[in-house]
Amino acid sequence: MEYKGFKVDDNKIDEYVEKLGCSIFEACDLILEESGKIDESEETKNAIKNAEKNAPRRYEKSGNRKKTVKERKVDETKKMFLDEVSALVEDLGAVVVSRKTETETTFTFENATYTFKLTKHRPPKK
User: Fold this and answer.
1) In a 3-state reduction of DSSP, which class is residue 34?
2) Interhelix angle for 24-35 vs 10-20, to 10°?
3) Residue 33: CB atoms within 10 Å
4) Domain span including residue 35
5) Is residue 35 in some structural domain?
6) Global confidence as pTM
7) Positive or negative: CA dihedral 85, 91, 94, 96
8) Cα–Cα distance between 34 and 36 in angstroms, integer?
9) 107 forms bridges with which residues in the sheet?
10) Is residue 105 part of a domain?
């Protein structure tokens, strides 16, 4: 019989199966180990290597990542426009209630609240 690329005597296999009560493949492993054709540690190494290769991968987040704080840039053009709008609204008699950086201005005029929200539209990337 041929097993793991080696020729193994069938009579010897039958003898091991009867005496030890093992399977044919276990008997072949024992015969090859005894004859020195296969080293048990080599076989074990291959089995471990295959098990590691076929093991499911675990993708997890590591809890010790440092968060980078990126400083926000103020858009000076938008800020200038909202300053002008705020000045114009105050000249008309409205009261500026709040201002969010360079994005929006909220004001009241004749018991009603209004908001100017400024959005910058950039050209699409090519």
Assistant:
1) helix
2) 110
3) 13
4) 2-53
5) yes
6) 0.44
7) positive
8) 5
9) 96, 114
10) yes
